[in-house]
Design a protein that fits this description.
disordered N terminus
């Protein structure tokens, strides 16, 4: 029996029109996600790249992975902010854009917080210029994960840092801001890891502070436990809006994690918070291990949350990765196309899989002529976002890729980070489609990847 089949003609099944769900991976790889929704409804996001600061933007939350992106700042070749850029955050303060990030000179003990400024109304335009290091007077210590607490006309800076010069513990500190790039007073410790779930691993860690205010409650959500373990989780500190945030006694710590591993999601941490496009839902965006034990090998996820009567967030459990969840309110519906119902060529064939969206996947895209060709239909010409659900278990953790062609014309490629065969994720790509029926072909390129389904939605 021949192993290569030139064409397996499957009967195409129409897309599930008006599918109002998505599979919960916003980015297949990334850590320390920060998402900001601007006054015009645009979503901006940053993640740790280590070597630059890349900004993405999108009209939808679920489409951030395929949004427009741009490197907005590259570090100097040498100096205190030249290497190991971590956890960038974009804020709009005093009608300017400010970008906070941690960096060092190649030595971890020299990690500090830095600030960039851009006065353009559009952060993709203008220029981000360095405002230098932001550090506490008389306490220039190791510092990462800085964020801003905005209370009316007062600004505060909150970050994770060392008490002294030794890497034995990470505490949370707060200080007033005289302006968006200058501290206006000494740092004050408001939390240190003491509880059992905070002291897993060494050093003990409180990091990734993020603020969300509800009514009269300031919620400071932070990450705790060893970030390299599956026990990494989120904790919660609260203070009253009318209290003095510079007083340690104003902050109360919950005894239990606010969000921890569950539902086949491991090590959730470093969250940020945003509302849905219609403004009616609150969403948590966080990173998690791509597979059990993967440590700092992470993907970015999102899910809605609710509120308790005392103004504290109720995150529940992580949404299981193999069950689609409702789209954020106000987002357009997706058209979902199952790979097993499309046109298969070469050695590609469908197979049953319990974690696939309809219990079936397409694999064995092993030969150069192997491909899956999706027949999709759109009501008007324009740019569309493809969200491709894939699995990649290529040996040695290698990234896989498929070549893409649209209506017979090559359109580059799409990459699939490695998470193992049984850990499905999403990869994103924007393509131009004509009105009516279009053929989108995914062809074997580097490594090996299986396809489950494709979600199609207008890019704007």
């Amino acid at each position: 029996m021949a192993t290569a089949v030139l064409l397996l003609a499957n009967t195409a099944t129409p897309a599930q029109k008006a599918t109002r769900t998505f599979f919960n991976v916003l980015l297949p790889t990334g850590a320390d996600p920060w998402v900001y929704k601007h006054t015009d409804g645009t979503y901006y996001t940053t993640v740790t790249t280590g070597s630059d600061i890349t900004l993405r933007r999108s009209a939808t939350l679920s489409g951030l992975g395929g949004g427009e992106k741009r490197i907005i700042w590259s570090p100097p070749a040498r100096g205190p902010d030249s290497q190991n850029l971590w956890a960038p955050e974009l804020h709009y303060l005093h009608r300017k854009w400010y970008l906070y990030f941690a960096a060092d000179d190649g030595r971890n003990e020299n990690h500090r917080m830095f600030v960039l400024e851009n006065d353009s109304p559009d952060p993709f335009q203008g220029r981000f210029t360095s405002k230098g290091m932001i550090c506490a007077p008389r306490a220039n210590r190791w510092a990462i994960d800085g964020t801003v607490l905005n209370l009316g006309d007062k600004l505060y800076f909150i970050w994770s840092g060392w008490e002294g010069a030794a890497n034995d513990r990470q505490n949370l500190y707060i200080a007033p801001l005289a302006n968006p790039y200058t501290l206006g007073g000494p740092r004050v410790e408001i939390s240190r890891p003491t509880l059992p779930w905070e002291t897993i691993g060494s050093p003990h860690v409180n990091e990734g502070p993020q603020v969300v205010v509800k009514g009269q409650t300031i919620n400071l959500v932070y990450s705790a436990g060893g970030s390299w373990t599956d026990d990494y989780c989120l904790g919660l500190l609260t203070a009253g809006v009318g209290s003095d945030p510079l007083s340690p006694s104003s902050w109360k710590k919950q005894n239990r994690p606010a969000f921890r591993s569950g539902g086949d999601v491991f090590g959730p941490g470093h969250a940020s918070f945003v509302t849905s496009p219609d403004g009616r839902e609150d969403w948590i965006v966080f990173h998690a291990a791509r597979f059990p034990g993967s440590g700092w090998t992470r993907s970015v996820r999102a899910q809605p949350f609710t509120w308790n009567s005392d103004g504290t967030p109720s995150f529940g459990d992580p949404a299981p990765p193999n069950t689609p969840i409702p789209l954020p309110g106000g987002e357009p519906p997706h058209d979902r196309y199952e790979a097993e119902h499309q046109k298969l060529a070469g050695t590609a064939r469908s197979a049953k899989h319990s974690r696939a969206s309809q219990g079936e996947k397409v694999g064995f895209l092993d030969s150069p002529e192997s491909s899956v060709e999706f027949s999709v239909e759109v009501p008007q010409a324009g740019k569309y976002l493809l969200a491709v659900r894939f699995a990649n278990g290529t040996a040695k953790g290698r990234t896989a890729s498929h070549g893409i062609s649209v209506n017979g014309v090559g359109s580059g490629s799409i990459e699939y980070p490695n998470s193992g065969w049984d850990n499905w994720s999403n990869a994103f790509r924007a393509v131009d489609l004509r009105m009516g029926t279009n053929a989108i072909r995914f062809s074997k390129q580097d490594g090996f990847a299986e396809l489950d389904c494709l979600d199609l939605v207008p890019a704007k």
